[in-house]
Amino acid sequence: MNGADRLCETLLANDIDVCFANPGTSEMHFVAALDRRPQMRCVLGLFEGVATGAADGYARMADKPAATLLHLGPGLANGLANLHNARRARTPMLNVVGDHATYFLKHDAPLTSDIESLARPMSQWVGYIGSAAEVEARTSEAYRAAMRMPGVATLILPADAAWGDVPSDRPPVRTTLPDLAAASTQAVRNAAETLRSQRRVALLLTGQALRAHALEIAGRIADATGARLLMQTSNGRVQRGAGRVVIGSVPYSVDAALEALHDVDAMIVVGAKVPVAFFAYPGKPGLLVREDCEIVDLARPGEDLVQALAHLADELGIKANTPVSVSPGFTDDATLPRGPLTDEAVAFTVARMLPEHAIVCDESITAGASFFRHSQHAAPHDYLRITGGAIGIGIPLAAGAAVACPDRKVVALQADGSGMYTVQGFWTQARENLDVVTIVFANRSYAILQGEMRNVGVEHFGSNAKRMLSIDEPTLDWVSMARGMGVDGGRATTVEEFRTLLEAALKQRGPFVIEAVV
Amino acid sequence: MNGADRLCETLLANDIDVCFANPGTSEMHFVAALDRRPQMRCVLGLFEGVATGAADGYARMADKPAATLLHLGPGLANGLANLHNARRARTPMLNVVGDHATYFLKHDAPLTSDIESLARPMSQWVGYIGSAAEVEARTSEAYRAAMRMPGVATLILPADAAWGDVPSDRPPVRTTLPDLAAASTQAVRNAAETLRSQRRVALLLTGQALRAHALEIAGRIADATGARLLMQTSNGRVQRGAGRVVIGSVPYSVDAALEALHDVDAMIVVGAKVPVAFFAYPGKPGLLVREDCEIVDLARPGEDLVQALAHLADELGIKANTPVSVSPGFTDDATLPRGPLTDEAVAFTVARMLPEHAIVCDESITAGASFFRHSQHAAPHDYLRITGGAIGIGIPLAAGAAVACPDRKVVALQADGSGMYTVQGFWTQARENLDVVTIVFANRSYAILQGEMRNVGVEHFGSNAKRMLSIDEPTLDWVSMARGMGVDGGRATTVEEFRTLLEAALKQRGPFVIEAVV
């Protein structure tokens, strides 16, 4: 058995059985080892950003990491933007990056680069496998880091560690995971005391605290104490819709966020980061809560967030079977809009037509901003969003979620500017026949940037600004691009056309693209 | 005047008047400053790898850097693979990477990352602009580094350095460039002595030594001494074809390279790297020359390679006006092949039909391997190749070369697997109406990797290997993808169809894609 075989065996022993891959020559022994193990599902992306974005979507839904297989520094570099998003989502992921043989690095061959320097900014953990004998231990460490940091673990596999002989042939041992650390008793008491005070308190949640069962506990706390439930602006996954506890999110825009958080005297954070602006603006604060807002840490990332909420409820004397306020679902008979298609009409229509237990992948940026509001009472669904602001995650994220949950419909809300970043992901959706309907908001501009340009005081765009902030001239034909990659699609310019296309797409299985001209 | 204005002025003072851009919010003040200067040509890429690859192609042809405008760590990350190629080509380039305002970094906002750690592996020079007052000096340093290292200079521009006031309003001073360092007299003498010895000597060239006038000097040396002329496997640009000095290149495959270099007793390197294998293979050497081959450094990268050759010729007593052996052009009346299209037929046909002074951008990998041989006596042309092995450069490289040389036809030879990496580049070709004909070798596989898989001893591919090394199922429709981005195209399955399409594409102006099904 060689090191590459050992790596595969160690992954499989830990139930990692999906590998999003884009291999090169230095990974050929690993490819050969994967080929000897048909129980490992290898999913090819035609660009590494597709592989890493899909691994993110997969793990958000499967609650376990996928492996990725990336080719040296440049292959890793191509995947970094989506690793950045995964790092911010704290998604467990295990990247295997091939490197030149250890003894070969001195030659500084054309593809040589400093892989660790590239990996570190976008990984919670980085490890180098010095030899075949080290493969099992290092892979086990990487798995533990991915599951318990939790986050992105990047393992560098030199070619000679892959092809070298492993001394022992005993099967790899399943990695023991330590229990999640518990929030401290003192933290629970502090949070309870804060909630019992007369101040206006918000609970800020993220991570596992946004799953339905955790939100029920948080909802009972809110019902009992009058605290507000909030989640970060960007989260990996939240379970919401009819029958689920309703939770708002911190707005993206600085002014709206300041307004929304102005009356918060104390904020209890549950695995979350205290809200800060996405960007600095001259004369505007970075911190979005009031300077005198008290921050109470209930639990930190890597701690057991769900248990922390349960302990907090206990401390407050709230029984586990207390009924909790949830979304009643849509209670009106709103008629769908008609006529020319708009962002708002798309968001409204998708929310109303969303199938039960759909997975919504949202990289609609400005265009789909109203979807979150419209879908508060939609059919119960999982909502996955771009987390790190690195655009180009939507198409791959949807692919990965669909690999993890083959029996659920994935509905991807996709801005056109961002969609172009990893448009190659459609091909993977076609090859794997993934059940994804992608709705492209074709506004033919970087609309968010046009707004930001006005924010810096430029009202009238000259030629250079127009050419950098618009993506018309020529118009992108999404149906043609998707068909070129084996995904069928249609174009809608009216609400009626959009609705007809969406109905058909939701009924069929397999990928479909709707270009919504808005 | 703010820092961003100062940056633009400093770039323009140094004749940098093209910016390949993909901006984000943190770069809005820079965008506004560019917008105030219509003399700066801003070219938008729909992905940062397009911007960096195009900047590489531009500078290879213009012999001066373009600027790029990249958005924070993830934007830089997306451009890194093509920066890797540019670094290996030693292409002068000046990247401007926006960062959060200096005082804002402490908030660790979603898009925060360690930009320096990402930049360093793929840049010859990295600098951080601490404030608006530093903009001119740092930009000047970056320009000098780009021109004189030469190579990739990456400048990190925090938002507050962009929007901050610059104390002085005097116009920026043009940066003084030191003369290129001269090769040492001793190095020239050593090289001459080597050439006068009875040993079999090769001159290994790269960089400026591959321009027509430098090759004439090298050719005279070869004619006079019997030395062999060789260039590196991968070079940024070489001027070749009819009327030019003929030069071979070190083969890519280890076995072929060992064979080709076996009889070389001494190698005089002119800005080049001693040949090493692209990858390590068990039991094969990394160094491609014999262990006892003497290496004689005539000139190092960053030294004046052309002058070094001229001094060497002087030292050997060769007169500057001595006639030199050059390619006579095609001397046969070879008829074009007929019938089903093959790699070989495409390469042969393109070589025979190549227009005078075309720029050939070659990322054909395995499929176009024979083009180099077939085009030895083609019409005079510039030949630009992928240099660092990071695939996804072809489409952007062609775009950048076309921006630099609007009066020359660009012929891009593109492998399909690599082409998908930065397929978004077609849109930039369409928007700028660039005169590029792209020939996609649609072999529907990572053919090079299938060969490498056999090299590691796997003859029969299982399902996983097939799924990772083939890109059929579904078949990519290049004509449909290109049209979706505003570039017209056609598909050829026979030599006759191919020839008809190529003839038409060469006659028209503007981008065109030919899918050559091989």
From TrEMBL, chains A, B:
Domain Thiamine pyrophosphate enzyme N-terminal TPP-binding, residue spans: 1-109
Listed Pfam families: TPP_enzyme_C, TPP_enzyme_N
Swiss-Prot/TrEMBL keywords: Thiamine pyrophosphate
GO molecular function, one term: flavin adenine dinucleotide binding
Recorded superkingdom: Bacteria
Domain Thiamine pyrophosphate enzyme TPP-binding intervals: 374-515
GO BP terms: small molecule metabolic process
NCBIfam families (UniProt xref): PRK07586.1 (NF005760)
PANTHER family, A to Z: ACETOLACTATE SYNTHASE LARGE SUBUNIT ILVX-RELATED (PTHR18968:SF86), THIAMINE PYROPHOSPHATE ENZYMES (PTHR18968)
Family note: Belongs to the TPP enzyme family.
Name of this chain's protein: Acetolactate synthase large subunit
Organism: Microvirga makkahensis
